[in-house]
Specification:
heterotrimer; A mainly alpha; B alpha/beta; C mainly alpha; B: alpha/beta; D-Maltodextrin-Binding Protein, domain 2; 2 domains; 5-stranded mixed beta sheet; 4-stranded mixed beta sheet; 18 helices; globular; C: mainly alpha; MetI-like fold; two-stranded antiparallel sheet; 13 helices
């Protein structure tokens, strides 16, 4: 921990200016950084404006202009039409459950594959990687008939199982790069200390990977939160559907209410924005190799 | 600290399992109830009904559906109608997945001809001819149920009936002293005048492809005649017919004359429509389902709604077509699943639904139903009355090509339409591709 | 040590739950897709076994090959843009002032669903009142391009939002990987007199190499089976100019009722991904894994 603050001080000195060239370089860097930041913030502002327009204004006004009378009623309309509250709760718990399961199970698998010694490990890794390559639409019909046979259609469990299974490969892949980079001394130290494998994993390795856990959690949350193909296919009861279905409520046979869709998207982005801000602060400095022993 | 974090995660996971367990029980309980109902028919019955009128946007339709269902449930206390609502695209996908596992809802929405053919051939829809000879006998507009008939049996009852006129913006026409074109030559002059004055003549969103198909169909109908077009689509004649090829050439001539809005091949119908509503484009060829937008939709400026008129697609000099021949046809209809455990109840519900829909949909949702409407008994905007009159005068109505053709041929047709408009396909290859696809019979 | 780390019971306990789930939920569909690919089936009733007929047709299907070519182009572009993402992540992971805030802002677009991204870029590309053409017009460009309607432009026009959509994803992964490098290593290098570029090139890059390799595979496989924005923004058009394998598969299976052929495309796509992964692994193979020293 000491080393972090030391390096910040060091950089601080460099920033306060040795040569003008360096200073100019920094100014240029900040100009670029701020320009990109504005560009990246633009979609959120655009979405907010979009959600305050009616169909005519969505198509006719320039994207970054506010209509003369903002259509706040889009939000009331969204809130009143359909079961948005129920969808919301379903989205939250299904996303959280699937994400927690995926991250924990994938960590166990990655640990076993990268750190433990067994013959079939590369074959098993291959099986997980292959699972990443199948296009989603190829799986709809087989999965439906399978869940139908085990009576899991119109049951949130079918969604959680599918989300966990389909996000598992990518989660393992991301974890893989980090586990390979974990210092060897970790195991050596713990084995010498007489740790069991379970203890080693849960007490030492798992906490050491908190950065990548937060990363994969963010990615899983975003995927699960925005998913709609499986929801539409496996769930038929309105009380079990999720927030992405809320968007559908405004796509009609012949017309689509874009403003209301914008409002739905705006409402649905808030929870993941909060989750993201919270989790992204968990991506922290790695622990120095030497500190494990102590 | 790390320990704490881990404990929280574990807790979340186990909680998730617990909640999932709850959901599991809930789901099964529901399913159980539904099955029980089905088995003891006559006692409590649940009819599953899948449709595509969500509350948010198809508010009029959704309200009628709910009204009809609640009335029906009041009149038949033993019946519960369970709805599932999806949007158009998702609805079609789900129907496909459900049919692969033989799990269609008891009652659902279908499109005519080519769309329903695989379902009929796979014995998934049940014939509803008994309903046609019952209370509904003579109630349908002539020609509407035929689109749902196959091998002499009718497999669904239509709810809508549409034709496609050319809507135009009267204000723009006045500004440039333009008259409603009666002949195609006059039409071309109108296009040229508008284009020369920097107004996009026609709004077209050809990313959706069926929109461009309407233009080709009308030109084919007016030049080659309704009969030739109908035969070619059925595979009884060739698309290489001189008149049909000429129609394709005319399409490209329109493109060359800048008749359509800029970038039309990349625009959705939704975007093109807004060009028309915003007054950026003067004409828009589209179905009568748009009528609420030109009459009662408060979101659209009154000034614009007052200036929308329509004209019939003009005749072509020397062409075999008739000005009273229309492109159109029934939209969606209701089917009853062949494997439904509550087939009789489902059929009764469909009969009730179609009747009530016919009574309420014009005034309640601005939809023109496939059942006959007594226009004198209800108050309607003039545009509706004029179009009802035209419908009754129609010499023939050619069903939308992509609806008529079998699925694979329809895809070829739509792709070729986009290619023709984008000039990636010549009129000759356009014709040949059509013949090949229709001949393949898929 | 080895004995502890090869405890069969523990391995089974760690791997089996995930493996069983994958076998049930992903492998059954893969196997069935492989089987449907050998049949003629419209999705209703029972499939007719036709052997390799679909695959024979596939090899001769020019529409399929052009979609495969488009997907391959996307894969190449995606892999190349990883360099930019890595550079951005390096800046964000460095200790410049405000890096934390910049990182959060930079990653916000990845929270948007495909529906929102598609709508945003449709407004940007709109031929008459889109942002892009408005800007071009203000610079005096007369015949502004029809981005999504011009077969020569559409593919590249659609690549940009796709690359942009995934930027956050990769920047996030790289950021975490770079953060994971112990600060002590950088300190040591600094004491030895290394400058920022040298540290990036000699220390950070090699230590993040395993993660970089993984992201190359993810980017290529993800691109080869890409679907979302293409389907919403252009539907593969005009005239198939922006069709990719997954959108072609979807159309064949769900629009043309040709589920057998669609499945064959899906299975073939899987094989292509497999080959691509194998090639990438061969190309990026290093003799031994770099360890902290």
């Amino acid at each position: 921990m000491m080393s972090v603050s030391a390096s910040q001080m060091h950089n601080g000195k460099a920033g306060s200016g040795k040569s003008t060239a360096l200073k100019l370089g920094y100014i240029l860097l900040y100009v670029v950084l701020i320009a990109v930041a504005v560009f990246q913030l633009f979609p959120l502002v655009w979405l907010l404006f979009f959600s305050l327009k009616n169909n005519q204004e969505v198509f006719n006004l320039p994207p970054l202009s506010l209509p003369t009378d903002p259509k706040w009623e889009n939000y009331t309309k969204v809130w009143e039409a359909g079961n948005i509250g129920v969808y919301f709760l379903n989205s939250v718990w299904i996303t959280l459950a699937a994400t927690a399961l995926t991250v924990v199970i994938a960590s166990l698998v990655t640990f076993a594959i990268t750190r433990m010694k067994w013959k079939a490990s590369s074959l098993v890794l291959g099986l997980f990687m292959l699972a990443m390559m199948i296009p989603v639409h190829s799986t709809l019909i087989p999965l439906f008939s399978m869940f139908n046979k085990v009576h899991l259609i119109d049951n949130p469990l079918s969604l959680i199982l599918t989300y966990v299974a389909f996000n598992m490969p990518i989660t393992i892949m991301i974890l893989l790069g980090f586990y390979y980079a974990l210092p060897k001394e970790v195991e050596e130290a713990s084995v010498i200390d007489g740790c069991s494998v379970n203890r080693m994993f849960f007490r030492i390795v798992f906490p050491m990977t908190s950065s990548v856990l937060a990363t994969t959690a963010i990615i899983n949350i975003i995927y699960n939160w925005n998913e709609f193909i499986f929801v539409n296919t496996f769930i038929s009861s309105d009380t079990l559907k999720t927030l992405t279905v809320g968007v559908q409520n405004f796509i009609g046979q012949y017309t689509t209410d874009w403003g209301a869709i914008g409002a739905t998207l705006m409402i649905s982005i808030l929870p993941i924005l909060i989750a993201f801000l919270f989790l992204s602060d968990r991506i922290v400095e790695g622990i120095a190799a030497g500190s494990v022993k102590g | 600290m790390f320990k704490k974090k881990w404990t929280t995660l574990l807790l979340t996971a186990s909680l998730a399992f617990a909640v999932a367990g709850c959901g599991n029980n809930g789901g099964n309980a529901n399913e159980g109830a539904a099955n029980d109902g089905a088995n003891e028919s006559g006692n409590k019955v649940t009819v599953n009904f899948m449709h595509l009128w969500p509350e948010g946007v198809s508010a009029g339709q959704n309200k009628i559906v709910n009204q009809i269902i609640s009335d029906y449930q009041n009149e038949n206390p033993n019946v519960t109608i369970k709805q599932e609502v999806l949007d158009n695209e998702q609805y079609k996908n789900k129907l496909k997945v459900l049919s692969a596992s033989n799990q269609l809802p008891d009652v659902g929405v279908t499109w005519a001809a080519g769309f329903m053919q695989p379902y009929v051939e796979g014995n998934l829809f049940t014939p509803v001819d008994d309903l046609l000879s019952g209370e509904l006998n003579g109630k349908f507009v002539a020609g509407t149920t035929e689109a749902y008939a196959m091998n002499g049996k009718t497999y669904a009852l239509p709810l809508e009936f549409n034709i496609a006129p050319v809507y135009y913006n009267k204000a723009i026409f006045e500004k440039f002293n333009l008259e409603i074109p009666q002949t195609y030559d006059q039409f071309k002059t109108v296009v040229k005048t508008l284009s020369d004055n920097g107004v996009a003549p026609i709004a077209l969103g050809n990313k959706d492809r069926w929109t461009g198909s309407l233009w080709y169909m009308y030109l084919a109908d007016r030049i080659a005649g309704q009969d030739t077009l109908a035969k070619a689509i059925k595979g009884e004649a060739s698309f290489t017919d001189a008149g049909l090829v000429q129609a394709a050439q005319e399409v490209q001539a329109l493109v060359d004359g800048n008749a359509f809005v800029k970038g039309f091949n990349g625009l959705s119908n939704e975007e093109a429509k807004s060009e028309f509503i915003n007054g950026n484009a003067a004409m828009y060829l589209m179905g009568t389902w748009e009528l609420p937008n030109w009459t009662t939709n408060e979101d659209i400026p009154q000034e614009f709604r007052d200036s929308v008129g329509f004209f019939k697609f003009p005749t072509v000099d020397g062409g075999k077509g008739n000005i009273d021949s229309w492109v159109g046809g029934p939209g969606v209809g209701l089917f009853v699943s062949e494997n439904s455990k509550v087939k009789d109840e489902a059929k009764k519900f469909v009969e009730y639904f179609v009747t009530k829909w016919g009574e309420q949909s014009v005034t309640g949702a601005g939809v023109i139903p496939a059942t006959k409407v007594d226009t004198s008994a209800i108050e309607l905007p003039q545009l509706y009355i004029d179009l009802f009159t035209e419908m009754n005068k129609a010499s023939s109505i050619t069903l939308f090509a992509d609806v008529q053709m079998k699925a694979d041929a329809a895809e070829t047709h739509l792709n070729q339409i986009q290619s023709l408009f984008g000039k990636a396909s010549t009129p000759d290859s356009f014709a040949k591709e059509h013949d090949a696809a229709i001949k393949a019979g898929k | 040590m080895d004995k502890v780390m090869s405890n069969k019971k523990i391995i089974a306990l760690y791997v089996l739950p995930a493996l069983l789930l994958i076998l049930a939920v992903v492998y059954i569909p893969i196997i069935l897709t492989g089987y449907y690919g050998l049949t003629e089936w419209n999705g209703i009733g029972s499939p007719d076994f036709v052997g390799f007929e679909n695959y024979a047709a596939l090899l001769k299907d020019s529409a399929f090959w052009s979609s495969a070519w488009h997907a391959l182009l996307l894969a190449i572009f995606s892999a190349l843009s990883l360099i930019i993402y890595l550079a951005v992540a390096m800046v964000l992971a460095s200790k410049i002032k405000g890096a934390n805030l910049f990182r959060k802002i930079y990653l916000i677009p990845m929270l948007l669903s495909s529906v929102a991204i598609a709508q945003l870029w449709l407004r940007i590309y709109h031929p008459t009142n889109g942002i892009l053409n408005s800007v071009l017009e203000s610079f005096g460009v007369e015949n502004t391009p029809e981005w999504l309607a011009d077969p020569n432009l559409v593919l590249f026009a659609i690549f940009i939002p796709i690359l942009w959509q995934y930027a956050g994803f990769y920047i996030l992964i790289y950021y975490a990987a770079l953060k994971n490098i112990p600060a002590s290593l950088e300190e040591a290098a600094k004491i030895d007199g290394a400058n920022a570029l040298q540290i990036a090139w000699k220390i950070k890059l090699p230590l993040a190499m395993e993660v970089i390799k993984v992201t190359i595979v993810l980017a290529v496989v993800g691109s080869l089976k890409y679907f979302d924005l293409i389907y919403v923004m252009t539907n593969g058009g005009p005239n198939g100019a922006s069709e990719v394998m997954a959108s072609y598969m979807y159309k064949e299976a769900f629009k043309s009722y040709d589920f057998g052929y669609g499945s064959a495309i899906g299975f073939f796509l899987l094989l292509i991904c497999l080959v691509a992964t194998w090639i990438i692994r061969k190309l990026t193979a290093t003799k031994d894994t770099i360890q902290y020293s």
